[in-house]
Design a protein that fits this description.
314 residues; two-stranded antiparallel ribbon; mainly alpha; 1% strand
Length: 314
């Protein structure tokens, strides 16, 4: 048996080794988390620079010379020598001329008859010239109903003699979509707006709705309006209750399963990793998400909100 002092020394060294091992394990775990975070950050940068559909960085980047042998390294960049160029001629002042291909609509702003009388001799002044000022203007689109009036003609002589009155009228002109009630001008404008200007149909509808005259307020009396509102409120309550029951019976179990899965992932995922951050964010917003089950006013997605903010964003 070794001496007791040696045994105590070995035990002390063993405890110290265990402490060092525990410390190193913690350092390794921290380094692993840092590496995972840096790898995720590098992945985002590479995807942003070279990914499909992303904005690519023009010119040299941080990753251009990675893992290249010394022979393939780029030469050092020398500062450019500024070139002395001749001073540019300043452009003349003044407004540019309006496009010559646009139609002109003259509006004469004349003096009154009293202003044309000379204050000195009271004779009527004669016109000796004019000054034309041009303003580039715009007339909003106007919706209108084109009425195609086709007079009908009949032979009264044949009718008086008991014969066929020979009723005739002009034939309708050809239309792109017969019997649709839509004129060729409006149809062409909708097609150009959608296919060339990339305006969706719902935005075109909103834009053209501003061109229509406001409906008269006399279309319904206050009593009718009140009864209509009361009827609509009763109908909305029944509809909302049906929607809530449907969501709770169909979407409720799915959301409960997702909540259990998030709890499991929260216990195992690294908190600072991208996945761990996504799990934490989902759990923090869970209270707002499940309100969809109890209130029919909330939509299943944020599509309506996106559509509402798209016009100001554009």
């Amino acid at each position: 048996m070794p001496p007791t002092a040696d045994i105590d020394e070995l035990r002390r060294q063993l405890a110290q080794a265990y402490a060092v091992i525990a410390e190193l394990r913690g350092v390794v775990a921290d380094l692993r988390k840092q590496v995972e975070a840096q790898q995720a950050h590098i992945h985002r940068l590479v995807k942003r620079a070279f990914g499909r559909g992303g904005e690519r960085v023009e010119g040299p980047t941080l990753f251009d010379w990675v893992d290249l042998p010394d022979a393939e390294l780029p030469p050092p960049i020398e500062p450019p020598v500024p070139e002395v160029s001749a001073p540019k001629k300043r452009k003349g002042h003044g407004r540019r001329h309006k496009p010559a291909d646009l139609p002109r609509r003259p509006e004469v702003i004349d003096l009154s008859d009293a202003e044309k009388v000379c204050s000195c001799c009271h004779a009527t002044k004669i016109r000796i010239g004019q000054i034309v000022s041009e303003r580039l203007d715009y007339q909003p689109m106007a919706l209108f109903v084109r009425q195609l009036v086709r007079p009908t003609y009949a032979c009264r002589s044949c009718e008086s003699q008991g014969h066929d009155p020979q009723i005739v009228r002009a034939v309708l002109p050809p239309e792109p979509t017969p019997r649709s009630g839509i004129g060729s001008g409006l149809l062409a404008h909708v097609m150009v707006s959608k296919m060339i200007d990339h305006l969706p149909l719902h935005r075109q509808e909103t834009t053209r709705g501003r061109s229509r005259p406001s409906p008269s307020s006399a279309l319904c009396t206050p009593s009718n309006a009140r009864s209509g509102r009361n009827g609509e409120n009763r109908g909305e309550k029944f509809t909302d209750a049906d929607v809530v029951r449907g969501r709770q019976s169909r979407a409720g179990p799915i959301l409960a399963a997702v909540a259990d899965w998030l709890d499991i992932q929260h216990r195992t995922a690294t908190p600072k990793s991208l996945f761990g951050q996504a799990v934490a964010y989902s759990r923090n917003q869970w209270g707002s998400l499940v309100r969809y089950l109890d209130d029919a006013r909330f939509c299943i997605d944020n599509g309506a909100a996106e559509r509402a903010i798209r016009p100001p964003a554009v």
